[in-house]
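Case 527 in the screening queue. Each case pairs one protein sequence with one candidate compound; here the compound is DGJ. For every case the pipeline is the same: read the inputs, emit a complex structure as tokens, and attach any notable structural observations.

Predict complex for case 527.
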Amino acid sequence: MNESLSNKIPHLHKKGDTTQLFVDGEPFIMLGGELHNSSSSSLAYMESIWPRLVSLGLNTVLAPVSWELVEPVEGKLDFTLVDGLIEGARKHNLKLVFLWFGTWKNASSSYAPPWVKTNLERFPRAQTSQGKNTDAVTCFSRAACEADAHAFAALMRHICEVDGQEHTVLMLQVENEVGILRTTRDRCELAERAFAQDVPTTLTDYIREHANCLTSYLQNAWKKAGSKTAGTWKEVFGEAADEVFMAWHFARYINSVAKAGKAEYPIPMYVNAWLGPQYEGQLPGSYPSGGPVARMMDIWRVAAPNIDFLAPDIYVEDFRRVCCEFRHSGNPLMIPEARSDEQAAGNVFYAVGQHDALCFSPFAIDSVVEPHPLTASYRLLSEMMPIITKYQGTGRMIGFTDDSLVNVGYSAYTGRELRGFECELGRYQLQVHFTKPFEKGKVPASGIIIATRDDEYIVAGLGFTVTFASKPKETKNVEILTLDEGRFEKGKWVAGRRLNGDESLSGKIIYMRNEPSVCIAKIYEYP
Ligand code: DGJ
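Case 527 output:
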């Protein structure tokens, strides 16, 4: 596909230090939800689900498409479900991300078709150190890789045929939470042979050239092993060898699958991670070893150039830390899975506002009971999408949420305890104070603030106040000049009340109530 054509289909575009997803010429943020694993295997089952996804406020659905149903018999491809899902999404004005459950889903090969699962001679299994077969096809099987790539390429060709003009399908997730469990590395014969070989020079060259910007875990392990630029996996990577070795080989396999798919229809493709380690000292193998976790990001980047980015499935408490880790060296943030609790309604403000997330998507969205606070967050973000995307990559936007973890500090100005934070944005110092008490099971204080000019701010979200001060060392009086509440309609501002007097403490403070809303403030200073 030539360049001008590939710019017409969903694609990623670099803007400043960030990456945006473009759909039909406009940047797009996927306000999503991922279906339960089995929901999209039946179009009849999906019938009652679609309208609920719409009323929840989603614009994108993440839906599994499995190898076992696409190619139940070798060489016989069936896209009935794919077509039905595309049709269902279009009818409900929704976009889709397909999740290719191919050779692996959660480190197991349970979604491989029966003709793959039952032929261990042709498609050998990964083995533990006791030489026991696991439930996963080994990533060292060329036959499996070719068969998976063949099916995936056919899927992408089909999507191109039926959706190359309309662009309902925006992205593909290639496999799901890969890696090997219960052992740090695969011990099947093919794997053992590969482990005895030298590390490929493509990888050692990369390590040498990027030694100072590798993830700290990889950098430390490599240095500890003597900063070698050639040798076996054990010699070069020391204690990290098993995980690095598995990451390299999973990534090479998946790169071949993605490459075959992109040759047919080059829309963005990514892999998702079962996170690990999740606590100090957790060993690879108790989370999938070799999966696309943050500390293996460099390995995946070199081994899988056809994978556009690595995406975390975030079920852990410290949502913000994981987002930061996955922004390493320009990796765009996409969150295909997250908890669907009330905190999600706040986390989406943080992910989108602070990290320019391409997508936020709680898992098991078809089980979410309405009313859910996510709907109000999605509605607000959706109406603000043209403004948000305009300011992505400019350094003029922040996003935040109260997760009760590290938001308590002391104000540099008043010395008083502050549940919130202070930051510089535009011309002024902002003090954001969380007024909504943090309670589990309730949507937390959260929001987005954009400095549209040096003295003008869009403030969106709920449960906080904002005050303005001159930057440190300046001693001017700073106050609100005008403050308007309102809403955005397709990116255009529609003003409501002018807020003054009691509603802004006579120009001193912006009060954001406990439901999502938006306002615009102009700020001024005087001696
Ligand atoms: C993570 C997987 O990627 C999902 O498909 C699903 O199995 C969830 N775990 C279940 O919590």
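Case 527 observations:
- The first helix runs from residue 3 to 6.
- The first strand starts at residue 11 and ends at 15.
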